[in-house]
Amino acid sequence: MLETNFEVRAASGRPCYILAIETSCDETAVAIVKDGREVIVNEVSSQIDTHRKFGGVVPEVASRKHVETITVILEEAMGKSGLEFGDLSAIAVTQGPGLVGSLLVGVVSAKALAFSLGLPLIGVHHIAGHIFANRLVHELVYPSVCLVVSGGHTELVYCEAEGSFRIIGLTRDDAAGEAYDKVARALGLPYPGGPHVDRLAHESGEAVPLPRAWLEPDSYDFSFSGLKSAVLAALNQARMKGQELPPAHVARGFQESVIDVLVEKAIRAARAYGAKQLLLAGGVAANRGLRERLAERCAAEGLPLLAPPLALCTDNAAMIGAAAYVKWRQGHFTPLDVKAEPLMKLETW
Ligand code: KG4
Ligand code: ZN
Prior knowledge:
alpha/beta, Nucleotidyltransferase, domain 5, five-stranded mixed β-sheet, 10 strands, binds 5'-O-[(R)-(carboxyoxy)(hydroxy)phosphoryl]adenosine, binds zinc ion
C-alpha cells in the first residue's frame, strides 16, 4: 500500500537520504544527498560529445539520450552509495524549467521510483537547485541576493528568507552562458564555449574594446545580444580588411564586458536590498574571471560572497537534492500526477 503519511517519516529522526534526478537539458544526473548537506554520490553523464557536432543541444536527441542513460546512472549511483532503496527517504526531480522532452524523462523516472518504493516525490525548480547548491558547502543567512548565470538564465534574485525567491532583474534577450556559447562558436571554439572563452581571456594581455549594456540607471536587467552582435561585427570588419582579430583578444574584451555589468549590478542589488550575503549560481558561476572580480568587489564592500565549488556550478543532481531537502523539512511534497513544467516560475519553486 502506498504510504501517504510522509510527514511522520520526515519527523522520525532517521537520517534523510534524498535521491535526486536532473535531466532538464543535456546532462543525465543522479545524486544522493544526506540530511541536505552531505553528497553521498553525484553522478553526471554529459551528452556534450553528442551535441558538439551540431554546435548546441538538439532537444529531440537530448531526450532520447536521457532515456538510454537514466537507468544506468540510477544503478551506478545506488551501487556507489552502498545504500539500499529501503534507506531512501524521498525522490527529488527537476520539474522545470528546461527542455520538455528531457524534463519528462526525469519526471517519469522519479514518479516510477517514488510510486514503487512508496516514497514522497519532491519536484524542484532547476534554478532553485543552482541557488541551493551553495547550501551544500555554506551556511546561508538571509536576506541575500543571488546572481544566477547559466546557459538559459541570467537573473538577480532577492531571497528574503529560506525558500523565498523574487526575481528583481533578468536578461531581456540572451542568457550570459548563451552569449558565451555563441561568441565561442564565432571564434571557432567547441561547444559549450564558456570554459574555452574563459581560458582564452585569461591568456590574453589585450582586449578588443566592446560595449557594455547598462540599460536604465536603476535597472537590474541585463542584455547580451548587442554585445554578441558587436563581437560578430568586429570579427567581420577585420576580415573585410583582410585581417584576423586574435581570438584571445576578442575573448578578453567579451569577458570583461560581461563581467563588468554582472558584477556592478549584483553589488548594487546586494546593497539596495540589504543582503547579508551575495550568492553566485549557475554554469557561468564556474567562470574564473567572474569569481575573481566578484571576490575583489565583495571584499572591498565587506560583503560575504558564496559560490559553489566548480563541480556543483554546472548542471548536477546534488543541487536538486539540496533544494529538495528544504522542501522535505517543510513537509512540502509533490503529487504523483505532476507534469514536467518547461516554463516553471522560480517563485513557485
Ligand atoms: O547551469 P548550466 O550547466 O546549464 C544550464 O542550466 O543552462 O550552464 C551551462 C552554461 C553554458 O552556457 C556554458 O558555456 C557555461 O555555463 N559555462 C561557462 C563556464 N563554464 C560553463 N561560461 C563561462 N565560463 C565558464 N568557465
Ligand atoms: Zn543549469
